[in-house]
Fold each of these.
Amino acid sequence: MTATSPSPVASGHGVAVSFQDLHRWYGSVHALDGLTIDIAPGELVALLGPSGCGKTTALRALGGLDEVDAGRILVDGRDITHVPANKRDMGIVFQAYSLFPNMTARDNVGYGLRLRGIDASTRRKRADEMLDLVGLRQQASRYPHQMSGGQQQRVALARALAIQPKVLLLDEPLSALDAKVRRQLREEIRRIQIMVGITTVFVTHDQEEALAMGDRVGVMSAGRLEQIAAPTELYDRPRTRFVAEFVGLTNRIEGVAGDDTVDLLGTRVPLLEGSAHSGRVVALVRPEALRLAPEAGTGARVLAVSFLGSLCRAQVALPSREIVVAQMSAAEATDLAPGTEVRVGVRPAPVFAIETDAT
């Protein structure tokens, strides 16, 4: 996604960011192992992975809060690898709101401008514009303790944007909030990011957040980038076993592979690139790729059904004693009470398969 028009609250179009073969060691731990990513102007890239995968190290390196041992970081074509943090023109929002408790929301937002010697009248105008942007103009005179967690994080976002940074860095900004507020705020952040047109790096361990917010999602493991792609491609066409297992839910179903397909529950299913392509394999199958139909005598039985609003997930015991999870609409699940015998089929969507001895 590239910004198509400047915003009155932005310093202009987004800038390109490039990580070039970054390496970072902490003793014997290789926190960044050749990380290379090119981020387009105005794009939001979410870095996703488990704790210790290197995603926060990458963000801190971009922000100048951590050094790299090798490689280069370019912003708008300029090498900033060894530029001090206060000269990099980055806006950063952390998990902790880090607001000054003795300052109002307006003063917190204007703090970075004050450090830059901006006069009081301009600071106030700019702070009010930013509070308008995040929907908190009416709370401008409130102190942090008078605001909810979600409101405080909005103030932190407004403060980061007030200095008109070239790049916005978001380090697990929603993880301290409850589920409902997280969903609301992630939509707000995405709306604001698109409106402002600012290049953004968003670090999270939450798959739903990454897939919902990112133009592209980069999955990291042990300091390496496993895959970076648009959310739909990442989910539907994982390129490595790690991505296939880490992103979303997967069933592990045994089958026989050959000729770039695998026989699963009586259906020939295409194999994704990088899969094991011959002999007995274990296919990683998404719950929504399984189809259930009530049918006596199959030997497969529904164990439990979980209601998830408009969706349902059914746990099914196959005749082989494997337990699989199928996902469907709530309407499709009306005849799937626990104990019901069902026929289990597989949609012919491509799957990732691994060798049986690799499990």
Note: The mean pLDDT is 91.
Amino acid sequence: MSGPALIQHSVSTWTQPPPTMASPERAQLVAALAQTVCGLGPGRLKVAVDGRTASGKTSFGHELAEALAARGRPVLRASLDDFKRPWRDRSLYDRESGEGYYRNAFDYDAVRRLLLEPMTGDGACALCAIDPRTQIDHSTVRVIAAPDAILVVDGVFAFRPELNDHWHYRIWLDIPVADSIDRGLARDGGDGIVMRERYVVSEDVYSAEVDPAARADVVIDNRRFHQPRVVRGHLEGLG
């Protein structure tokens, strides 16, 4: 193999750079996960990384994408944050309370139609619908998934019934609620009201209705960045 395969990213401005200087333990776990995913087959695959707010989903998605590309598989990277309903329509529904955020913030029809279904069709995927920061509609910007491409999508509520059957592999990053709050405040600032009254509440509703960790193929304790640990599931090549 001459080098890593191509990773295609969303055009969204709501981006996060890949983490640097992973520990040997973390690198080993991500490599084992990439081996496990590649072992699912040679065709197009769809992988979801779910977990509470600030559990490390986007960083983990980037790491997994790099490891998959290093194994020669083309990768498409997307985030469910790029498939929220536009703010201009917020008067039509509640997306600001915890319950409302869970019920109404994301456009799951767009996720299926623009991102997931093309992976089993012509491969012409939109990796971003509405840019969360600029509110620009990028749904006509398409990338073509190679026949052996792997789509890695991070985001809360990824295992909801509207999406769950589309995934070939599901990853749940497990952190305590208190850690989610602390990390979210460190990342986003603020007084914590949005974190506690919107995100925590919405994720509690999700947990009660869907039990996402039970739907995952692998559950990873991601409390310590340099020492992630498999809680449930088996990864190829990991002792």
Note: The longest helix spans residues 193-210.
Amino acid sequence: MRARMALEVSGAELDLVEVSLRNKPARMLDLSPKGTVPVVELDDGTVIDESLDIMLWTLNMHDPKGWLGPDGDTLQAMLALIEDNDGDFKHHLDRTKYAVRYEGADPEVHRKDAQVFLDGLSARLNQNAFLMGDAPLLADWAILPFVRQFANIDRARFDASNDAKLSNWLDWGLASERFQTVMKKGSRWAE
């Protein structure tokens, strides 16, 4: 979702193709043997198969909403926050949401550990309207889909466990036209 949001805001022209991860197309696996989405193949044959890399690639070409921030320091701070999301928080999210996939994973322990990251987001939102200031930037759009996944495990518990500002930020993102636009399915894969 985050790659699609950045591609949409940048105005990148592309063919969006939905794939079934239960029946991965051979062409997709040829492009990216790890078999995960998203995968972008550029006209020159370059393959980008990490969502944050896709976001940075497309926004570096065209960033009409200023998602990369007003200066290099802001971008570095955002990348550090996103790294925390993509590392520790994602680790605990997966083991809370999909505990049966991880031998010995206790979802309650991982929920508690994930909460540390969420508390940090709440602290930011108590200082600013968005994670990095008064406008949504790369960090907001890169982290939102993961917070959504975590909240969707048990939304009532999420709301009860978190500052209202974090729940309101999540609701803002989910209701945004940008998020609603990228949630629409593309055409299905055809050889």
Note: The beta strands are 17-18, 40-41, 47-48, 187-188.
